[in-house]
Design goal:
With about 290 residues, the protein is α+β, with helices and mostly antiparallel strands. The chain is built from 8 helices and 18 strands.
């Protein structure tokens, strides 16, 4: 079952049929005692497929990032590939062996990633910093965690990162990771109380001028830390009144000679959630007035 946030309200998709969700905010929805059961009750009360909204009504709506007032956090060095890339990019800052220690440690690396206003939705633009020369996307399974610390759903995440800034000094990680449109989520929430299978694939494709310039794939089997453990660490000493999103790290890193450029198109697919697509821009965003 998938939950979509659109410009005309929320919809739940089940077995190819779409149902409107009578909710005033995602915050209230995510705080529900049993989100999966609540959405199933909406489908049952709607009378099943005979009372579903038309697919045309749903497809004509703009799909937005499935986020309300939640903070977005992220985990790092959770895949061996990420550990190796972090060590390589930090070779001029002392060899980066601390990333090897983080990979092996019991405590994970967790860091703040984005406020809702900095998050891009499906089809919206993500940014590369103007003062960075080596930026990459990081495709990540992202957890939706309710205020009680329970994983209630999953979405696709893009943790945009400036590898040259982070590699210069690990203390620069907030600048390399946290800036306007440095994060994308979508296209929906896969609502489930059960863990995803370890065979779940994660794929990325980057297009430049309509031509693929990078592609890669991994599976959750390569994720060293259990998603539930990451969520538990995040909620150890933090309270999230509206719940939180937690990116679980990346197992796909482009080669060192690759950097994102203005106009690139990023497609990240996680079955069975869907595909998150965003175009890349560089330069400051003009605040809305």
């Amino acid at each position: 079952m998938k939950l979509f946030r659109t410009g005309v309200g929320c919809f739940v998709e089940n077995d190819g049929h779409y149902y409107r969700v009578p909710v005033t905010s995602l915050d209230a929805l995510f705080a529900h005692d049993d989100l999966q059961g609540y959405l199933l009750s909406i489908i049952e009360k709607s009378g099943g497929a005979d009372f579903a909204v038309s697919e045309l009504d749903f497809s004509s709506a703009q799909i937005l990032a499935p986020i309300g007032s939640q903070e977005v956090w992220a985990a790092g060095v959770t895949y061996f590939r990420s550990r190796s890339a972090r060590m390589a990019e930090s070779k001029d800052a002392g060899g980066g062996d601390f990333y090897d220690r983080v990979y092996a440690a019991e405590r994970p690396e967790l860091f703040f990633k984005a406020t809702p206003s900095r998050v891009a939705g499906p089809g919206a633009v993500v940014r590369i910093r103007s003062d960075a020369k080596w930026s990459v996307p990081e495709p990540e399974l992202t957890l939706l965690i309710n205020p009680r610390g329970q994983i209630i759903g999953y979405t696709v995440g893009n943790d945009m990162s400036s590898r040259d800034i982070e590699g210069e000094n690990p203390l620069y990680l907030p600048q390399a990771k946290v800036y306007d449109r440095s994060c994308a989520l979508g296209p929906c929430i896969l609502v489930s109380n059960d863990p995803l299978p370890t065979a779940t694939p994660i794929r990325i494709e980057i297009l430049r001028g309509g031509r693929a310039v990078f592609s890669g794939a991994t599976t959750l089997a390569e994720l060293k830390r259990a998603p539930a453990d990451l969520a538990a660490y995040l909620f150890r000493e933090n309270t999230f009144s509206f719940g939180a999103f937690l990116m679980t790290g990346t197992g796909i890193v482009p080669p060192d000679d690759f950097a994102l450029a203005q106009g690139d198109r990023i497609r990240i697919t996680i079955d069975p959630i869907g595909t998150l697509q965003n175009d890349v821009v560089q330069g400051r965003l003009i605040p809305a007035v």
